[in-house]
């Protein structure tokens, strides 16, 4: 599918993708990384688009890239054309609805796994395969490039330019918790008031580029409460490595109430107020597949049965997250 250009030729959608990436990033290196192309190839595509349109789209200096007036004028048209292009390809993809659907459920034992299990019951003739990798920020890039079909996480924590290319459906307000060494003074409590964490240094994924949305949520929660965010550190993989790190630094770990048990630790819900982690089902715009339909129906059914989308009166959630969750319910 191509679009007629003013010069009488046809615009390759790749050129519009190049333009849109640079327009949203305002940085050629980041835009090239986002598209998985060399910066030289990206610059070449932008120059070609400018020639075909007969307009300069960007002002470039050694320090910054900005949109020209023509670039600003093209931006909404480019977004609409690419959205229509993706929808057309999805609608007419041969055999796409028969292929297995790859779903990232993050961690075994969470609500995400229950949604996947219910979806498999609703669509027994379809293959929905699970992947277990932490972080919606990392998963989002796989969604956009087609290496992954669906994931779960905090949608508001994604870059707005990324959100614009994805769809989401609220699944649950997940109550948050703290994972503590079993001999930690707060471990004796049945629930930990947020005020009791004042003076503590709490790990929330800082340093992990795949979980930026979770670290950002922790930053909002800790701000003004005297709770320090643990400095960046490599993510501990495996129960034994997790146990070793916990024993060494003794930092509490921010989690959700259904986080699986870890050796020599206890999980305690957070209260006063109850912090909520907004969980959404996320997939690429234009993706049409019976497995997505089953996941969406499963999320609706479980939310209704379990009260997942009931927000408690004493619940805490960032304002941006609340708007995104409420706008789709």
Question: Can you tell me about this structure?
Answer:
Belongs to the LysR transcriptional regulatory family. Keywords: DNA-binding, Transcription, Transcription regulation. Residues 11-68 form the HTH lysR-type domain. The chain is globular and about 70 Å long. The chain is 40% helix and 21% strand. It has 3 domains: 3-92, Arc Repressor Mutant, subunit A, CATH 1.10.10.10; 96-173 and 278-327, Periplasmic binding protein-like II (D-Maltodextrin-Binding Protein, domain 2, 3-Layer(aba) Sandwich), CATH 3.40.190.10; 174-275, Periplasmic binding protein-like II (D-Maltodextrin-Binding Protein, domain 2, 3-Layer(aba) Sandwich), CATH 3.40.190.10. The protein has helices at residues 13-25, 28-35, 39-53, 69-92, 111-122, 136-144, 160-163, 212-222, 239-249, 290-306, 319-327, and strands spanning 3-4, 10-11, 58-60, 65-67, 101-104, 128-131, 150-153, 166-181, 192-193, 201-202, 228-229, 253-256, 265-271, 274-284, 315-316. It contains 11 helices and 15 strands. The protein is α/β, with parallel strands linked by helices and 329 residues long. The model has no long low-confidence stretch (mean pLDDT 88). The longest helix is centred in the first third of the chain and has 24 residues, at 69-92. Helix 1 (13-25) packs across helix 4 and helix 2 crosses helix 3. The chain starts with a strand and ends with a helix. The strands form 5 sheets. Strands 7, 8, 9, 12, 13, 14 and 15 form a 7-stranded mixed beta sheet that branches. The protein has a two-stranded antiparallel ribbon with strand order 1-2.
């Amino acid at each position: 599918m191509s679009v007629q250009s003013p010069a009488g030729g046809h615009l390759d959608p790749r050129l519009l993708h190049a333009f849109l990436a640079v327009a949203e990033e305002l940085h050629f290196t980041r835009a090239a990384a986002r598209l998985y192309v060399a910066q030289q190839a990206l610059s070449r595509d932008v120059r070609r688009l400018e020639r075909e349109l007969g307009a300069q789209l960007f002002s470039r200096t050694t320090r910054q890239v900005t949109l020209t007036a023509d670039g600003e004028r093209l931006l909404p048209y480019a977004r609409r054309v690419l959205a229509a292009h993706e929808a057309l390809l999805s609608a007419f993809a041969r055999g796409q609805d028969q292929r297995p659907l790859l779903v990232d459920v993050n961690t075994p034992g969470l609500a995400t796994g229950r949604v996947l299990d219910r979806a498999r019951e609703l669509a027994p003739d379809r293959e929905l395969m699970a992947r277990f990798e932490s972080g919606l920020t990392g998963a989002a890039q796989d969604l956009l490039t087609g290496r992954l079909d669906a994931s779960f996480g905090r949608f508001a924590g994604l870059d707005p330019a990324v959100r614009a290319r994805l769809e989401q459906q609220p699944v649950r307000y997940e109550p948050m918790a703290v994972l503590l060494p079993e001999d930690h003074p707060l471990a004796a409590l049945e629930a930990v008031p947020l005020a009791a964490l004042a003076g503590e240094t709490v790990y929330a994924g800082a340093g992990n580029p795949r979980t930026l949305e979770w670290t950002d949520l922790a930053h909002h929660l800790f701000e003004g409460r005297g709770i320090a965010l643990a400095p960046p550190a490599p993510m501990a993989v495996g129960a034994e490595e997790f146990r070793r790190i916990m024993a060494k630094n003794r930092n509490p770990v921010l989690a959700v109430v259904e986080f699986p048990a870890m050796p020599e630790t206890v999980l305690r819900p957070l209260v006063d107020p109850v912090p909520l982690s907004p969980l959404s089902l996320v997939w690429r715009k234009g993706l049409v597949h019976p497995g997505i339909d089953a996941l969406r129906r499963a999320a609706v059914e479980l939310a209704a049965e379990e009260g997942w989308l009931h927000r408690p009166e004493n619940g805490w959630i960032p304002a941006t997250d609340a708007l995104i969750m409420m706008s789709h319910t």
